[in-house]
Specification:
The protein is built from 16 helices and 13 strands. By secondary structure, it is an alpha/beta fold. It has a seven-stranded mixed β-sheet, with helices on both faces. A two-stranded parallel sheet has the order 1-12. The structure holds pyridoxal-5'-phosphate. Its cofactor is pyridoxal 5'-phosphate.
């Protein structure tokens, strides 16, 4: 008898399953709006020019293949932290931010969850927005957390359910609960709190002693400006919160498969930071020993070179603006050209890579079967998958599905 004869088959990953169905489809009109990766105006994966130049610099310096330290490439981590917190950040200036390189955003979340599970001196309960990125629940659950939800999306308005969100954080979350916050470009809804609402959330976290854990996977992707997209993180820090932060360079530098990220924690002072850093190493060492070097070298070259940095900012803006133009175009075709039943203004107001269209599961099934258009069953579409060549066909397919 095999040792694994009793292993039950697990369910397929809901997002990667969409890609598999797309690949199997032979129709030339097929569109994949499932996966959260940027595509250019031709529907192709996009390697940023600043990344190509950074790689040429690195190549010219003939780097060795030695191991990085456990917490990765220190210069990179320092520059990543600066990008998120801002040069004027008080804990940054004080030298009290503990940080480590991570295996992209997922790895940062996992290190953070594992560190909190071991050292956070209160109950291991995390509140996630409802809905949230599908991987948040297993990351925190596998790290030993009890996972609960706070209200976020209002299906009636296709907007933020801010009153219910506040009520959950004020009345339902016990003191010292960990609260996961999407720093910008909320996935999957594309709905972010306004600056005023962030300020209220910060006040509630303070009053209720909730621990803010930010997931910032899309800095720059929401508005086109990395500093504008860091508003929530910087506001919380300026209000004195000791935040945890997971950063990813997958989307904003297009470094998906290079797995470049950082995890950081605001501590009280440099002495406490040193103790926290030592424990981060103890968490990481048995997980994967040390992170890969190439992607961190690319990101650091861009972050530390004035010319490449400026080029990067304009390329991030270009990606964000192409997505925003697709939102306007899709709204225009549905509303003005096709007079598609329903209200579609949320497509324009939502932010970042995704739009939560409001399409129901039966619509998504019909779109796949009849129109060769693939999206997740929750009605989320990756706006980056749309371009001038396929947007009219997509809008007509949606029109057909909802009539
Ligand atoms: N967090 C959110 C909200 C995401 O959408 C993603 C990617 O889709 C990630 C984290 C992590 O991605 P990665 O591990 O590729 O950086």
């Amino acid at each position: 008898l095999s040792a694994w004869s009793a292993v039950p088959a697990g369910p397929p990953d809901p997002i990667l399953g969409v890609t598999e169905a797309f690949k199997a489809d032979k129709d030339p009109r097929k569109i994949n709006l499932g996966v959260g990766a940027y595509r250019d105006g031709q529907g192709k994966p996009y390697v940023l020019d600043c990344v190509k130049k950074a790689e040429a610099f690195i190549e010219a310096s003939s780097p060795d293949k030695e191991y990085l330290p456990i917490t990765g490439f220190g210069e990179f981590t320092k520059n990543a932290v600066k990008l998120a917190y801002g040069v004027d950040s008080a804990p940054l200036k004080a030298g009290s931010i503990a940080a480590t390189q991570s295996i992209s955003g997922t790895g940062a979340l996992r290190i953070g969850a594992a560190f909190l599970a071991r050292h956070y001196p209160h109950a291991k309960v995390v509140y996630l927005p409802d809905p949230s990125w599908g991987n948040h629940t297993p990351i925190f659950r596998d790290s030993g957390f009890e996972v609960r939800k706070y209200a976020y999306f209002n299906p009636a308005t296709l907007g933020l359910n801010f009153d219910a969100l506040k009520a959950d954080l004020l009345n339902n979350a016990p003191e010292h609960s960990v609260v996961l916050l999407h720093a910008c470009a909320h996935n999957p809804t594309g709905i972010d709190p306004t600056p005023e609402q962030w300020s209220e959330i910060s006040d509630i976290c303070k009053a209720r002693k909730l621990f803010p854990f930010f997931d910032m996977a899309y800095q720059g992707f929401a508005s086109g400006s990395t500093s504008r997209d860091a508003f929530a993180v910087r506001h919380f820090v300026s209000e004195g919160h000791q935040i945890a932060l997971a950063q990813s360079f997958a989307k904003n530098m297009g470094l998906y498969g290079e797995r470049v990220g950082a995890f950081s924690l605001v501590t009280a002072d440099p002495e406490e930071k040193a103790r926290v850093d030592s424990q981060l190493k103890i968490v990481i060492r048995p997980m994967y020993s040390n992170p890969p070097a190439h992607g961190a070298r690319i990101a650091n070259t861009i972050l530390s070179n004035e010319e490449l940095y400026a080029e990067w900012e304009s390329e991030v803006k270009g990606m964000a603006e192409r997505i925003i133009s697709m939102r306007d175009k899709l709204y225009g075709i549905l509303t003005n050209d096709l007079k598609t039943p329903g209200e579609w203004s949320h497509i324009k107001s939502q932010i970042g890579m995704f739009s939560f269209t409001g399409l129901k599961k039966e619509h998504t099934v019909a779109l796949a079967q009849k129109a060769h258009v693939y999206l997740t069953a929750d009605g989320r579409i990756s706006m980056a998958g749309l371009n001038a060549n396929n947007i009219t066909y997509f809008a007509e397919s949606v029109d057909g599905a909802v009539r």
